[in-house]
Amino acid sequence: MIERTLSTDEITALDAYWRAANYLTVGQIYLQDNPLLREPLRPAHIKPRLLGHWGTSPGLNLIYAHLNRIIRERDADVIYLAGPGHGGPALLANVYLEGTYSEVYPNITQNLMGLRAFFRQFSTPGGVPSHVSPPTPGSIHEGGELGYVLTHAFGAAFDNPNLLAVAVVGDGEAETGPLEGSWKGVRFLNPVHDGAVLPILHLNEYKIGGPTVLGRASDESIGRLLAGHGYDPHFVAGTDPMRVHATLARTLDACVDVIDLIQNNARTAGHATECRRWPAIVLRTPKGWTGPKEVDGKPIEGTFRAHQVPLAEVRTNPKHLAMLESWMRSYRPEWLFDQEGRLRADLAALAPKGDRRMGANPHANGGRLSVPLDLPNPRTYSIPVASPGTERHESTQRLGQLLRDTYRKNPSNFRLFCPDETNSNRLGAVFEVESRCLVERTIPTDERVSPEGRVMEVLSEHNCEGWLEGYLLTGRHGLFATYEAFALIVASMATQHAKWLDSCEELPWRVPVPSLNILLTSTCWRNDHNGFSHQGPGFMDTIISKKGTVARVYLPPDANCLLSVADHCLRSKNHVNLIIIDKQPQLQWLDLDEAREHCERGASVWQWASSVGQPDIVLACAGDIATMETLAAVAWLRARAPEMRVRVVNVVDLMSLFSPDEHPHGMTEERFVDIFTPDIDVVFAFHGYPGAVHQLLHRRTHASRFHVRGYREEGTTTTPFDMVVLNDTSRFHLVMEALRRTRHPPPGADRLIDECRAILKHHANYVREHFEDMPEIRDWVWKAA
């Protein structure tokens, strides 16, 4: 352990470094010229639009400066995750001071000219955002994505034994539900093979317009809250910078000592020990610390008015301009920076070197460390399909077997994240080689629960998604599986991650990371026992709307297609891959070789189910239940209207429906016409909301000929077939639509439509009397012609 008190000289140096970061933070918000105030400040030196957030920045700068000391003295491997909203100028200031920024962006040099460019780019067109984002070296967490900083930090620490992830939690952020749930991550952190997370709850009492709950809470109540979550809280507070520096330095040393002790004890014993209360820091500093105390008679420092731009009229109000100049000169830039505009050499020496700098840490550019998965051969788990649509199997069970052996072959590079539904989703084969992770006591009635477990089950979609994102962004691989309806809980998280990856596409220094893979099961069509609340396919719409460079949506109709898609997704990088397939027993259509070819094409004509020659109608489908209903409709038409020529098209890669200029998987118009014909009507049975398909097809020729049937917010606790009936997507609805839209109606088409209506009426009576579907529906299989 390191037990010492910093000398006055050391504290003075730390304070100077902090002042330099504060100066650069203010400069980014306000200045477009005269970066070091080498001449009196004039309105022309001020940006025309003042954008940025000052209030949280001094605290973020303070923490960064002190972590630099910890890294230097201990050769620690540390990444910094800034949870408080728009703390971007603070993190940018620090990665500039440590030299990382100029290495990544050579045009932002370490001199007066580079400093001017550094200020001018902040929150301006063609520049960088005001929040921590992909262009910020050292970042894996989007500033302003309130609520997720701890989940990302824990995800980064899993299977990263030497990493310390410091997660700064803003007191506004601490009010969110996801953050409140994410404190539980410490119960899943195994000190034997995981790194550590040091939460720093930064309390400055105010949000953008009012007080925060924890900001007004007593230390005693906050201490009880954190202790109940499994932490040993350490409090640092004050307004005197020198005293705060001294206290924070001692506190950080004590916390890192405890972390080292916990890890050393666990690694010596070979298992997590009982006494492992992890440290956390509660840092109370004034909002907008070191900024203006009062403006126009109103208090600023320590109030909500310091949240963004404390002096808003500096271009037009000479008094405000003078206050800004006085504020900036209070940091003594003429002493902090030399004549060339570089940070003084003795201060620059306070930053770590090389990859130990937090802006240069390779864990925050995880592609640098990523090792490809050693994946098993999907053929091992494939289902022989001698005849399409004649046998039922649980498709996700086969995926579970593949994931089991992925764990076996990748013992520290892959994890499955699932909110207590691994067995429910038929992925339970993973428990043949792994256990559920819980770093707590176990009792005899537990099943496959262990502190050493690496199957991450916690009843929080936010934690599961956030853990996986942190795990991926630091270079590892994984899969998040959940019920379809509950995926909407993390729609904003998936959106932010997709935007992160999209931004990274424009940054050549960001090495691609493994893709975010999301598996949705217990889908709307087979959640009959849970009822209407669990019937919602809307998450797919969220992903479809994202950039084509990033977003992928797959609807495998059977096990072999699922295996093919999963193998592809687990190998891919920089994508958000959404896979949707139900967990219930379902008919199997393609053998593995056929499935692979089909998935590579994205969409195919299923010749074995189609009529020979030019069709009178095209029946298309995307989704497992939609596929079964479509094939059942085709079989019905084949038996009752054999002269009607039907083409069957199955779509497994939904993005293939886009045009190529909208998505890289999009079909050329030539291929699209070859599959769907140039002008024949298409009855399209779809897994989700019909509008999604219309969105994909909007630029196609004669898009109005597509008649989409899908989920339309009709549901209840009912039978499986009744669900498709309620949503007008049953085989009989598809038949009636086909008969109405076909180019050459068969003889007796009206009579066939009436027959379908009669069957549907009989169905409604039958399920209400017998509580199950009719045998001819329940036991239907495909019969080759």
The low-confidence runs, each spanning 5 or more residues with pLDDT under 50, are none
CATH homologous superfamily annotation of the largest domain? Thiamin diphosphate (ThDP)-binding fold, Pyr/PP domains
At the third CATH level, what is the topology name of the largest domain? Rossmann fold
Spatial gap, N to C terminus: 78 Å
Number of domains: 3
The share of residues in helices is: 25-40%
The 3D shape can be described as elongated
How much of the polypeptide forms β-strand, as a percent range?
5-15%
The secondary structure category is: alpha/beta
**CATH class identity of the largest domain:** Alpha Beta
Named at the architecture level, the CATH assignment of the largest domain is 3-Layer(aba) Sandwich
The protein's oligomeric status is single chain
Separate helix tally: 26
Describe this structure in words.
By secondary structure, this protein is α/β, with parallel strands linked by helices. It folds into three domains: 8-363, Thiamin diphosphate (ThDP)-binding fold, Pyr/PP domains (Rossmann fold, 3-Layer(aba) Sandwich), CATH 3.40.50.970; 378-587, Thiamin diphosphate (ThDP)-binding fold, Pyr/PP domains (Rossmann fold); 602-778, Rossmann fold (3-Layer(aba) Sandwich). The chain has a six-stranded parallel beta sheet, sandwiched between helices. Helix 10 (241-269) links the parallel strand 4 (231-237) and strand 5. Helix 24 packs antiparallel against helix 25 (749-770). The N and C termini lie far apart (78 Å).
